[in-house]
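FAQ: What does a ligand-bound record look like?

Like this one, built around NAP:
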Amino acid sequence: MARSVSDSARILQLARTSRDVVAIAMGEIGLPARVLALREGSALAYGPVAAATAPGQIPLRDLKALYRAHELTRATRVYGVIGNPVGHSLSPLLHNTGYIAARRDAVYVPFLVENLKDFLKALPDFGVRGFSVTLPHKGKIFAHLDEVEPLAEKIGAVNTVTVRKDGSLYGSNTDYVGVLRALEKKMKLRGSRVAIYGAGGSARAAAFALAQAGAHMFVCARRPEMARKLAKAAGGEAVPRSALRTQEFDALLNATPIGMFPQEKVSPLAASELNCTLVMDLIYRPIRTKLLRLAASRKVACVSGVEMFLAQGFAQWEHWMGGKAPEPIMRNAVLRALKNEENTRW
Ligand code: NAP
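The answer part, i.e. the structure of the complex:
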């Protein structure tokens, strides 16, 4: 039972010692080592033919078709996502689907990380070349990086780390790219008026992205001092909630978790506050939130948070793989998974 990433690394080391060893790291923390044990020399891997019966088990179909555990070699480039929790992350599906479609010798695994230092120490054992960073590590990772992209520094969050050949770590932020690409498909940002509801981590990425793209950016939050702080840092204006009823905007972004599963029947804003031509909800569970349904009923254009999720993942691909990702196939895989989730829930 792996209780830390370094426990998993010890299991991988064991697999390397002899051909007569079956090395299986148990528990959710052990999942990446389950995927990588065969390439390290484990004689067998275990994958249940039906659903998993214990934490960290990977159904045989996914072990073979998604992670390709039986085909990985020491030359395979390893990527992953670190977070706590990390079990619901769609990033392994997104990236592995892309690697398979583009015939890249790479694999992407979810690392349940409680202790950052413990994970970073184990990077060489797993041969990790890059990783996505999700909550609660997006801010804490800074202390461990050798170099940070200037905009990520300003935003105060890193969601993408590249492990360079010499082992040094370079941090960047593709969440802001995600917001920009999702919006730019639908509107011209330069000179437009865009309001953000919320002033947390993703609002911060959105605010800097919008300011960089030349939009007039407005921040509205339940704690006005947080809106003022973010607006000042990113070069926008803080507005009170009443402004959403009295002013018009080209776009309005929800950067709060209100409306996210299991609270999918709630909207952060009322229909009378959607005085804009486009609404983007950063939430993607569900794909079509109550807010987006309200917007559609007012003939306002809608952008789901899944567009941001996909775009930030494509940008990560460009960092790590170089060139353009096979976007349509990756998009379809994620949309299908989200729709399946929704069908089984409701
Ligand atoms: P966060 O850092 O915790 O910020 C949440 C913001 O929402 C804060 O300003 C918070 O205000 C506000 N808020 C929370 N509950 C509220 C309520 N009941 N009424 C009014 N405001 C409320 O969270 P985050 O990381 O920015 O994430 C926000 C949402 O974006 C999440 O649903 C997340 O899933 C989504 N997201 C999506 C993507 C994507 O790729 N599509 C990426 C990142 C995040 P206080 O500070 O006053 O609590």
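Follow-up question: can I read anything off the structure? Yes, for example: The chain has a mean pLDDT of 96.
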